[in-house]
Design a protein that fits this description.
Length: 303
């Protein structure tokens, strides 16, 4: 005898807002009559935090100093003990999406997949059976999104990048002397809506050597609390090459970046962790000398 459990949500996008009802069906597909001791469905939402071994130490990283933060944990009984007939049986369900009140996260956070911080929401269905038979389990991930707010006020930022203004540049090989250059960068707004592209422009006014590449990098900065303080780590989310080869001087090159759905979220700050974002404009010269200009940005969910 073979039997399978599947969770199908009514909403194809699987995106829900706090206060809505998550509805769907649990599908039981069996080739023979199936006896069971009860069928239950659990909605779980949690924040999983992980320490970077380089900043926290290898022993701290494998300890239980950071426990998952529970955002929601609700269980309902779908069916009492009994028998499911052969074939396909659909059992409907509805569960309210309401946060579990706590001091760290009083409301539900948006779904987010990071390196050291992950916010995950899951439906888990289990069919209890007699001790002679293996319990059947299945799960389905869904996504939580904040409701749209008023469109943020644009906060453009403009700057010139020269050897005198560069805060960080490192040669990866070749010449160790910084070339003479003058670049202009502009970001249309450092307050960015998640459903709108990040735009701006970059221009090379002068440069004494050829340029190999100009790149726009989205960086996440994740901060996690632990026994000895906080671990703060920056990792790259996406890298878009906007110029390949030596660009024409005094010519504006547009910047355009669409934010990834699961790997970005509204800028978040709690007592236990933070999720922040930055933009880097990176210029790589022909001898692999790298110059970057950093722009902290605020991500919001707006109309």
């Amino acid at each position: 005898m073979s039997a399978n459990l599947t969770i199908n949500l009514k909403r194809a996008s699987k995106v829900y807002y706090e206060g809505e009802t998550v509805a769907g069906v649990v599908v039981v597909d069996t080739n023979a009559d199936l006896r069971h001791e009860g069928l239950s469905l659990t909605m779980e939402g949690c924040v999983n935090l992980q320490l970077n071994t380089k900043s926290a130490g290898i022993f701290d990283a494998f300890s239980n100093t950071i426990k998952p933060i529970t955002l929601i944990n609700t269980t309902i009984e779908l069916a009492a003990a009994g028998k499911i007939p052969v074939g396909v049986t659909e059992i409907p369900f509805e569960m309210p999406l309401v946060s579990r009140q706590n001091s760290i996260a009083p409301a539900l956070l948006e779904t987010y997949h990071g390196v050291f911080v992950n916010v995950i929401y899951t439906l888990k269905c289990g069919m209890r059976r007699s001790f002679l038979n293996k319990q059947l389990n299945t799960s389905c991930q869904f996504f939580v999104q904040h409701r749209h707010q008023e469109r943020p006020v644009s906060k453009p930022v403009r700057c010139e990048i020269t050897p005198a203004t560069v805060r960080g540049g490192a040669p990866a090989g070749g010449s160790r002397h910084m070339p003479h250059f003058q670049l202009y960068a502009e970001i249309d707004s450092t307050v960015c809506a998640l459903d709108r592209p990040i735009t701006g422009k970059v221009r090379v006014d002068e440069c004494s050597v050829a340029i190999k590449s100009v790149e726009l990098q989205l960086v996440r900065v994740e901060t996690c609390g632990h026994a000895e303080g906080f671990s703060r780590d920056a990792t790259e989310v996406q890298n878009i090459q906007v110029v390949c080869g030596d660009p024409r001087r005094a010519c504006d090159v547009p910047l355009y970046a669409v934010l990834p759905r699961l790997f970005s979220c509204p800028t978040t700050a709690t007592h236990a962790f933070k999720i922040e974002f930055e933009l880097n404009i990176a210029v790589i010269f022909e001898d692999d000398f790298l110059v970057t200009e950093n722009f902290p940005i605020l991500l919001v969910r707006s109309k």
